[in-house]
# Entry
Amino acid sequence: MTTTLGLPEPVRACLFDLDGVLTQTATVHAAAWKETFDAFLARRDGPGFRPFDAVADYDEYVDGRPRADGVRSFLASRGISLPEGGDDDPPERDTVHGIGNRKNALVLQKIKEMGVDAYPGSVRYVHAARDAGLRRAVVSSSANCHDVLIAAGIDDLFEVRIDGVVAAERHLPGKPRPDTFLAAARELGVAPAEAAVFEDALAGMEAGRSGNFGFVVGVDRAGQADALRRHGADTVVQDLAELLGETA
# Structure
């Protein structure tokens, strides 16, 4: 039996990813990753370098992962190993953290220039979940999560935020591990089986499945519905408004 929110009856809490689920920032992140990696690869390999694919490489190696994990994952796919460096490495330094810091600087610049929009269907869904008495959390690998929520005007809709800053403070491994989602469920006072995960990234699907959550919703913004299902989605929608019986 399902509720009017499109969720199984035992579900008492909703755990939402940020980029690509709540806010229209996934394309900004993909563009920043491409600019960052292409500059690095051009320096390393010269004019004939193979560019970063902002769709395939982004989905496979960096989407949903903590920043440094995304750097390591993509570079490993190209057979490249770099020194780790430190959190305060300058953006021009060719270390894991230096490249990550360059990407972060680009994202912040693009967000400042372009602003942040929330998906209207997602905002309606979160309002409906709140009105129905469901607990609500944001679970994001982004260290800029709080600023993005404020910029999008939706910060007040969530009771708990587990983001890149919180994960670092608590030493929580990022997606595809389920630890950040599990932390959000604990803070909301629900068991994993009583929580639904809303994700657009393949790493997020794996986190939902391995964490044994009650329901995993794949949000298909990039034409990868089959992949979302293979990685753990119980259902796939193009917009959360579909779960309310609306047209996005």
About this structure: The two ends are 24 Å apart (CA to CA). The first strand starts at residue 13 and ends at 16. The chain has a mean pLDDT of 93.
